[in-house]
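Reviewer 2 asked us to include a model.

Predict the structure of this chain.
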Amino acid sequence: MARKQSDYLAALLADEEVTNTKAEMESGAASALPSDKEATAPDSPRSERLRGSTLLGRESALARVASGEVRQVTQLLLDPARVRVWKGNARSYEHLSEESCRELIDSIIAEGGQKVEAVVRRIEGDPAHDYEVVAGTRRHWSVSWLRANSYPQMQFLAQVAHLDDEAAFRLADLENRARKDVSDLERARNYAQALNDHYGSHLTRMAERLKLSKGWLSKMIKVAGLPDQVLAAFASPADVQLKPAYPLAQALDDRSAATAILREAKALAREQQERRKMGDPAIPANAVIAHLLAAPKTAKERSGPVTYASDFGRPAVTVKSINRQGVTLQLHSGSGMSLEEQVELARCVAISVLTATHVGAPVSLERKPRVATRRDLCRVSCHVANTHRDSGHGISQTRVSTI
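Predicted model (structure tokens):
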């Protein structure tokens, strides 16, 4: 209940109590003294005036509520188990923990209960829940945790509001902006979802409603598009910050760069997992972003012709280029191999390169030509081809040129 309304109604109740007390005192005095109609007559109009004043005060209060000058607010003490969390809230409920809510939990215990109410709205069609939390997710989690850990009497204090989804989103967003524990990624993905759900994908309209810069909001939507494979490279999604993550999101627009970035992200995710198992410190977010942004450049530096030699140590097949259309091979004359053997070697090279490219495996290409024997190459590349045969991987195009 708002303080202004609470004080006003309290004053009305106080007037009523004073009136009743005076009436009781006058009645008691009248019964103790001898009956005298002339003595008691003057008091009767006074009581009537006081009663009339109270009734007029009540009518005035109701009129102020009806006119909108005074707003009625309903507060309830609820069982948190009967309250679900609205899916449109930016905060990730599953990532809340005793550690992240410890300060709030201690505050609720010290105060003997929740003092700052959450905002909920009534729902229908869900037999397990009566309300859903629009603002106050951490308070809901903390009270639920306390009820399950030695404080079963704790109840969830909530204010009931009548809100549509767009108004609920704006209210939740206003509260979350001041919260440091809501990550940039959580807020970005919440904005991206709201853009489609509430604003018809109109960025300008959403920026105006939220009183935000259109440029800043555009960057948030861009970061929200980071794929899960890239996020897995970070120790925690909460480490993803808007300013450093925006260039990474832009780099993924380049298809060739995206391939290298995703490959590097996969390697970093494996390393992060190994560090967690060993109890070692995680790779910091700034280092992860630096590795990912450098991945396309590193891949280009490794690109170049790869030469495979015959059993006589002479150049036989060179990989000239690899692109979306296929792989270009160059067959060298004077290798000491027969044409059939040289074509077989080229086939094995093509299978090895195209299969690795198709499944996203790194293709080992160096600027300095590398020499490998035909026998070793065929043994390895044909094994790779057999491994992925059931997946439908194969050669889409092979160009062979001789010199």
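The longest strand covers residues 315-323. The chain has 15 helices and nine strands. We have added this to the supplementary material.
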